Amino acid sequence: MQELLAFWRDYSFRWSFCPGADRRRRTREAAAPRGPVLAYSGRTCFVCHADGMRKYVIMGIQGSGKGTQSQMLESGLDLVHIGVGDILRWNVQNHTKMGAQVRRVMAAGELVGDDLVESVVRDRLTQHDWNYGFIIDGFPRNRRQAEFFLESYDIDGVIYLDLPDSEVRRRVLNRRLCSSCGMNYNLLDNTPAVPGRCDFCGGELVTREDDTEAALAVRLKDYHQKTNPVLDVFRRKEYVFTVDARPAPEVVQEQIRTRLGLPPDKSQGPAADVTRL
Q1: pTM of the prediction?
Q2: CA dihedral 141, 147, 152, 155 (to 10 degrees)
Q3: What is the pLDDT of residues 131-155, one digit of tens each?
């Protein structure tokens, strides 16, 4: 628990008043170079949530863009992005007791155990800093967790980013991570100005320990076996939006916001293929 609290204390929070709504909004900026870098919006809030919170789950295989889409979605909406993978990687990078356990699992190409993930999510949500809602990725991971989550939280939608395995391999094997600040890069469309160095802090870019062909094959098999039962639980409540995750991030984001009834983030390109299940 103390390790999780330390993770979130690495961020500085500043509050400002939103002239478009009779309330305060929270904006975040990462206290570099510590911890993973999350999205920061310094703009005036353009959405007023007088009717309550917004709570979303985003699902998809590694490389489908869950983190990117979550950070784009939280922009201007006062949502808190709860990335289970970000929390676990922070613990690995900071050599915590939890991090040592996670490192062994990731090096073997396996998924972190459900019990540990469930504990991380439960502890994170009990902090109640998500006054206007959250978007969570990396959870739930099995039917039992999905049913528990529905009983505990009145969610507004489940975004499923659909990506073929061939595209997953192409994206994942080109990912890099800053060893200092945690900034994510993809060498396909987000190359650093200086090869091998982070644009944000100058740290060395490294390959994640679990981003190998062998480890990815194990994760793909495990993911497909576990994901369908979870989606079935959410489909019974008609919560699931399936989105083609192959187009550019801006195109995918436009379709997510349109189908969820949210205002656009910015002018974007042609529509992606979106299906309500």
Answers
A1: 0.66
A2: 80
A3: 888 999 988 988 888 988 888 888 8
Q: Which helix (H) or strand (E) holds 119?
A: helix 114-125
Q: What is the DSSP letter of 273?
A: -
Query: 84-93 and 2-9 helices cross at what angle (nearest 10)?
Result: 100
Looking at the structure of the chain, the number of domains it has is 1
* DSSP secondary structure letters along 250-268: HHHHHHHHHHTT---SS--
Which amino acid is located at 102 in the chain?
A: V
DSSP 44: P
**Which distant-in-sequence residues (6+ apart) come within 8 Å of 237 by Cβ?**
150
Q: Structural domain of residue 180, as residue ranges? A: 2-276
Residue numbers annotated as active site: 66, 141, 175, 208, 219
Which CATH number characterizes residue 64's domain? 3.40.50.300
